[in-house]
Amino acid sequence: MAPRCFLPALLLLVFAPAGRAHLVARQGAGSYPAADGARALKPKGEAERLELAEGTTVAFAIQVPAAREVEGLDPAGWFLRFDLDVHTATELELTWAVEGGAASSARAEAFLPVRGRDHGRWGGRIGDLGGLAASGGEVAFELRARGGAATLGEFLVTRHHEAPTRKLRGKENGKLGPDQLSSGMLGFSALTEHQHAAFSLLGVRAGGPAAKAGARRGDVVVEVDGERLVPSSIAPGWKWFEESHEAVLGRAIQSALEDGRASVKLVVERESGLESLSLKLPLRGAPGALFPLSGKHAERFREDLVGWAVREQRKNGTWPGTNAVNVAMGALALLGTADPSHASAIERSVDFLLKNNPEPSKMKGLAYWQLSFQGILFCELELKEGDGRFLPWIEEACTWLPTTTHESKWGTQAFGHGPDGLPYDNKALMAPTAHLLVFDALARRCGVESRVFEHVEPYVRHAWSDPESGGHGAMGYNGSYRDKGEFWSRTGLVALAEVLRGDDAAMAPSLLVLMEERHPWMLNSHAYGEPGGALGLLSLSTVKRELLERIVPLYRWRFLNAWEPGHGLRYTSPHMGAPYMGEEAILNLSYLLLLASETGGLAIARQAEER
Fold this sequence. Notes:
Layout: E1 4-7, E2 23-27, E3 38-41, E4 49-52, E5 57-64, E6 78-88, E7 91-98, E8 104-108, E9 112-113, E10 120-126, H1 132-135, E11 137-146, E12 150-161, E13 179-183, E14 188-192, E15 199-204, H2 209-213, E16 220-224, E17 227-228, H3 238-243, H4 245-259, E18 263-270, E19 273-280, H5 298-312, H6 326-335, H7 343-356, H8 367-385, H9 391-400, E20 406-407, E21 413-414, H10 423-426, H11 431-445, H12 452-463, H13 488-501, H14 508-517, H15 532-543, H16 545-551, H17 556-562, E22 563-564, E23 568-569, H18 584-594, H19 596-599
Parallel strand pairs: 1-5
Antiparallel strand pairs: 2-12, 3-4, 4-12, 5-11, 6-10, 6-12, 7-8, 7-11, 9-10, 13-14, 14-15, 15-16, 16-17, 16-18, 18-19, 20-21, 22-23
Helix pairs in contact: 4-17, 5-18, 6-7, 6-8, 6-18, 8-9, 8-11, 11-13, 13-14, 13-15, 15-16, 15-18
């Protein structure tokens, strides 16, 4: 009889309604005790592994939580699948059963390589569960090494749906998904989940590469260009940058273009088995080194973003999403093209803003966000036209703003979200202040005697993580939370404001240090990951152009994946999402704004010698 090691209910359950909504179980190899032919190994500097002697069987059970109810989603469509890291093995057999049901099994003798790893992976559907994937219950497993010893790693059990919808997405504001992952280049949208080693297609765009290759909604993608996917991270940081499914897709596209290959190959898992699909790319040729700023494909990219902005602008001058930001953002983006053919579109947006906010001193609620963007636009127009049309509005705003602050916890004057008071027990926050400081700096360039910065300078410097006091150099959330996670946008904007003011820019060099060291956190900016990511990059174009040119090439994969040639950018959830901002609207408008760094069409996007 084969040696057995019974480990009932040993799998580590990490099910949670947010963040890991459908990660049912994640088993580390070290959780199996050494007994009866099974022992844990701990190679130096590597994850623990489970070594099974030939013929050894490990038995364990997991408790599957019930799936949450989702409007319009058929509970019968839920299913489970497994993924197992395999370091060495001749043949493996996995058997599973539910109480009162017959056992099912799967065998494997070949294990596909895992991207960036020295091992392979085996995975597949866990069928014949009789509805347990939806209702919940216990599943008993047995894993056996056949034909020789085996060395195994992590074992995952995840839940998926045959017909997933956008309603499965998690809350975007700072939560770990599930997130929407869109590939404009490949023609599909998908649901990507934290620590899942596969992702499910939400939709396939008619006539796109995925549709032509035969992909369909509900397909589970397990392999890209011959390599198995690793458990994805959708948390901000280096693992997202290197191992997220978004990064894997983007780098596969980039590699294909650079290598002269015409397609990207996906392996999808269906109830009937695995299917290999070849998705033909709508582009040929390697992107330029500074794509999308310049070089090959950059002009076509820019034209698509301009086309999106012109096509999607409404007759009243607005765009989809929030009017508090998107109207001024869109007008700024078109102004930044330095193309006079967009004058009428810009004027429509200006008319809308003046009609709705003719007097800045009467703005209420979350006024500072809207005033900042509207003020930046009006200053840029004044600097361009020089006819004084916007000066009364700018002067009124600059005079009014210092009268609206409140005393913070530290006795300094501070801005909240608007004039009504300070949030967070009077600790306030730097995010809206950073935007106001850029407006203040531009107002001075228009000849307005603005004193906004001087009024809140003590608060700003207290919030800054000053290196001379042992800090990391970035701009904090406020004086009690000088974080290194949500810093990107506010840090870049404060540096931009300091340089635009033309003073000694004492903080700017230190502010940029963390932006270079921790750029994979750019989509986690407080308030919004986008346009926060784009605004931080835009700030670099003015404050330190060479740093922008070091960071942008590292993200060519992201732009290539999101870009649908002939359309524009398709939306993938940022780490700190703001869905009310319009998804595709804020993405296309904010990155068109970034491209002003190449035209010199805006003061906020020019190097010092150009200004």
